[in-house]
From TrEMBL:
GO biological process: amino acid transport
Domain Leucine-binding protein positions: 41-387
CDD domains given in the database record: PBP1_ABC_LivK_ligand_binding-like
Originating species: Secundilactobacillus silagei JCM 19001
Descriptive protein name: Branched-chain amino acid ABC transporter substrate-binding protein
Gene: livK
Family listed: Belongs to the leucine-binding protein family.
Record-linked InterPro entries: BCAA_transport, Leu-bd, Leu_Ile_Val-bd, Peripla_BP_I
Record's keyword terms, sorted: Amino-acid transport, Signal, Transport
Keyword Magnesium carried by entry: no
Any matching Pfam family: Peripla_BP_6
Signal peptide positions (record): 1-23
UniProt cross-references to PANTHER family, sorted A to Z: LEUCINE-SPECIFIC-BINDING PROTEIN, PERIPLASMIC BINDING PROTEIN OF ABC TRANSPORTER FOR NATURAL AMINO ACIDS
Length: 398
């Protein structure tokens, strides 16, 4: 959290400050602002959707964060300029609400005085938190916010304290367009996107801009919608080759189920919002065939990465289930903050911000990650294939 600059320093205090500078001491009160590390812990806030529409993602992320933190602390903690400091997590539920997310961010930076924040899962909630994070000079690393503008200010400049551990929608939507055209050989496509989120509208826009075939129809739905039969029947009558449906598992699961029930069996391709076991529960395993989605964490690809294999084995031992995408992203986010602290030899929030901006070739569970000049993550992407509710293969897109 950012403390206001102390403007009046007199007498002994001024002398002491000068001595500290010449001694090479760096504290929040002398060389930087922001929240400094105090005592034997580094405080990491978690502003996460643990309930509400995106609660499925948030709880998976919580598990990844907690697992990474336990591993780090079991080895003594984070190395802060030669001294090991344990991570203390302060976890709060933003309830998939923009107003709650803003309030949570204020609490974390002002009351809890965290050194960094992991979260949120969604772009909308994360965007609402930015003013409070920026004012306090505390970096926030979102594992999964994908809207291209998330890390940018209105004038196009980079948000100085905002980062993401995933790729953004233009890249993901373009990958979906390339896969449908080149790999599925589909030339006539209908788009069915979620217009209640920047995530859904952004992906739909990116796909349409980059698809080389013909988009024969575009329709939208809102979060919470249940009946898609009229739209799907219209698609069926237009003799489409595939559907591109970017959105969250809650609605896409129903879209898949209803499409198959009316005999619309063309490939349905979506985005990482489908990477949740609840998708198959909603759609039904039999209906969840000929389904594809872009993802930053494919288990079949990950088996070639020793870091990912270790993570997947540890996750299964701890939680007794296969590691999901959003746990992997959050796990990487936790270790990225650790690396930023250790590279800068400081847990001051401004120093952590600098460390995150300079991450290069971070060897993560979701692949090798570099943070670019826009605070976006450059990393691999894959498309997973579901048949009968099971992942039967994946394709890495270059």
């Amino acid at each position: 959290m950012k403390k206001s600059t102390i403007k009046r320093i007199t007498g002994f205090a001024a002398i002491a400050m000068s001595a500290a500078i010449f001694a090479g001491c760096t504290t929040a009160k002398t060389t930087t602002q922001g929240n400094d590390q105090t005592g034997n812990t580094v405080k990491i806030g978690v502003n996460m959707e643990l309930s509400g529409a995106a609660g499925g993602y948030g709880n998976q992320m919580k598990q990844g964060i907690q697992m990474a933190t336990k591993e780090i602390n079991s080895k003594g903690g984070v190395n802060v300029n030669g001294k090991k400091k344990k991570i203390k997590l302060i976890i709060k539920d933003d309830k998939t609400s923009t107003s709650t997310s803003a309030s949570v961010a204020a609490q974390l930076v002002n009351n809890d005085k965290v050194n960094a924040i992991i979260g949120t899962a969604t772009t909308n909630a994360g965007t609402a938190a930015i003013p409070n994070e920026t004012k306090a000079k505390v970096p926030a690393l979102s594992p999964s916010a994908t809207d291209p503008n998330f890390t940018l200010q209105k004038d196009g400049k980079v948000q100085p304290y905002v980062f993401r551990a995933c790729y953004q929608n233009n890249f993901q939507g373009g990958t979906g367009a390339k896969f449908i055209y080149n790999n599925l050989k589909a030339k006539r496509v209908a788009v069915l996107g979620d217009n209640s989120t920047d995530y859904g509208t952004g992906l739909a826009k990116a796909f349409k801009q980059q698809f080389k075939g013909k988009v024969v129809d575009t329709q939208y739905f809102s979060g919470g919608d249940k009946d898609f039969n009229a739209i799907l029947t219209a698609f069926k009558n237009k003799k489409i080759d595939a559907i591109y449906a970017p959105g969250y598992y809650s609605e896409i699961g129903l879209i898949i189920k209803q499409a198959r029930q009316i005999g619309l069996n063309v490939p349905i391709v979506g985005s990482d919002g489908m990477a949740d076991a609840k998708l198959v529960q909603i759609a039904g395993a039999k209906n969840a065939s000929n389904i594809y989605y872009t993802t930053p964490f494919s288990k079949t690809v990950a088996k070639q990465n020793p870091v990912a294999v270790k993570f997947m084995n540890a996750y299964k031992a701890r939680y007794h289930t296969e590691a999901p995408t959003f746990s992997a992203l959050a796990y990487d986010s936790t270790y990225m903050i650790k690396q930023a602290i250790e590279n800068e030899k400081s847990a001051n929030s401004v120093k952590i911000t600098k460390g995150l901006a300079n991450i290069k070739d971070f060897n993560g569970v979701t692949g090798k990650i570099t943070i670019d000049s826009k605070h976006d993550a450059t990393k691999p992407i894959a498309v997973e294939h579901l048949n009968n509710g099971k992942v039967v293969g994946s394709t890495q897109i270059k």
